[in-house]
Amino acid sequence: MSSAHRKNYPHLAQPVGPYVAAVRHNGLLFLSGLTALGSSAEGRGFSEQADAIFKAIASIAGAERTDLSSLVKVTVFVTSLKFVRELRAALTKHLGDYSTMSSLVQIGKLLSPRVLVEVEAVFAIA
């Protein structure tokens, strides 16, 4: 029997497929890739989309009774590396002094042409 706890969050867009927003297992919280789809930032510029995503990540942390200081890893998928400066600004704005491990991957396209960035995250949770 798995001790993994699968969870969706009512304040976020609900998954439209056979997956969940997060899985908590052995003191770690794994977040599925988050995008701006369904938010007011959908179809907007990179900075607005990144801001919406990191606010959603922070809201999930709050729902799990932690904050961004527990974030240990992000994987960021972008449609163009021309967004690196804006990505760094978003990371600095939202993470501040909380340095985290990260990976940046450029991909051809995401789920929708209205999406420029997707972020997966892992938290260490007591």
Could you characterize the architecture of this molecule?
With 126 residues, the chain is an alpha+beta fold. It has helices at residues 46-63, 84-95, and strands at residues 5-7, 22-25, 28-34, 71-78, 101-106, 117-124. Helix 1 (46-63) packs parallel to helix 2 (84-95).
Briefly characterize the structure:
The protein has helices at residues 46-63, 84-95, and strands spanning 5-7, 22-25, 28-34, 71-78, 101-106, 117-124. The chain has 126 residues and is α+β, with helices and mostly antiparallel strands. It has a single domain (20-124), classed as 60s Ribosomal Protein L30, Chain: A, CATH 3.30.1330.40.
Note the gap between the termini.
21 Å
The CATH class is identified as Alpha Beta
Question: Cα-atom Rg, whole angstroms?
Answer: 14 Å
How much β-strand is present in the residues? 25-35%
CATH architecture annotation: 2-Layer Sandwich
User: How many helix segments?
Assistant: 2
Specify the helix fraction band. Answer: 10-25%
**Class from secondary-structure proportions:** alpha+beta
Largest sheet: 6 strands, mixed
| Mean pLDDT value | 93
